[in-house]
Amino acid sequence: MYQNAVLRKELTTRMRGWRSSLVIIAYVTVLAGIVLLQLSTSADPQNLSDSARLGQSLFAALAGFQMALVIFVAPASTADAISGERQRQTLDLLLVTGLSSRAIIFGKLFAGLAYDVLLILSSIPLFSLVFLFGGVGPSQFVDLFVTFLITTLLIGSMSLFISTFTRRSGAAVVLSMLATLGLTVGLVIVTLLLGAASSAAGNPNTMPFTGYFDPLVGLVAVLPFSQDIGSLDHFTAGPLHLSLWQDQMLANLLMSALFIAGSIRLLRPKGAPLR
Length: 275
Prior knowledge:
By secondary structure, the protein is mainly alpha-helical. It has one domain. The chain is about 70% helix and about 0% strand. α8 crosses α9. The longest helix is centred in the C-terminal third of the chain and has 32 residues, at about 170-200.
C-alpha cells in the first residue's frame, strides 16, 4: 500500500511536524488521568474478588473513553478526504492521473485512519494496567482492541463515502458526525425500544436486528460484566458458534465494505471508467 502515491503523500503531510506527537502525548496524559481518578475514588481492595472488580471497572472506564475518541475523531479524519480535494479544485487533477479509483479511495482511507489507529495503539500500556488487578483476561483485551479497530474502519469508511458526494469540507464533517451519532447513540435508543417491545411480546432473549449495526452494542458485549447481553439469541450463535460481539463486528465489516465500494463507484463521473 505504501507504493500508493496518495497514501504516501497523505501520510507524509499528516505525520510531519510536532502536532502529531503533541496530540498523542496529550491523549495518553488524559488516559492516565482517568486511571488515577478511577483508582483514587475506589476503595482499597481487601481480597482478590475486590481487586478483580476494580480491574473490571478500570477496564470499562478506559474502554468507554476510547470509544468516545473513535466516535468523535474518526469522522473528521476522512470526511474531508474527497470533499477537500473538490473544494480546493484539485480533484480533477487527481482523477486524470494514472491512479485508479480504488487506489485513490484506499489511499485516502488508510491515510485518514492511520493516525486514529496510532492513538488507539498508544493506549495499550495504560490498558495493560488492569492486569495488575485481575478480572480481565488477555482474550478480552484483544477482543476490545479488535472492536476499536473495526469500529474505526466503519466510521472512517462511512465518512469517506459521505465525502464523495459533498462539495464542502465543513458540510462533510457535520454530516459525518451526525451520521456517526445516529449509527451509535441513535441505534442504541432504537435497539432499547425494540428490545422492550420484544420483551413485552414474550421474547426477552432476542437481540433486535438494529443491534447488529451499532458499534456500542459490540463494545458492551465485549466488556467483562456483560454476561446478560452476551447471552441474547443472535444470528450466528447457532451454526457458527460466534459470540455476540463477533457477530456485530462481522456486520460492521460488511457495512465498511459497502461504504468503500460506494465511494469507489461515486468518485468518478458517470460514464467514466471505474478502474
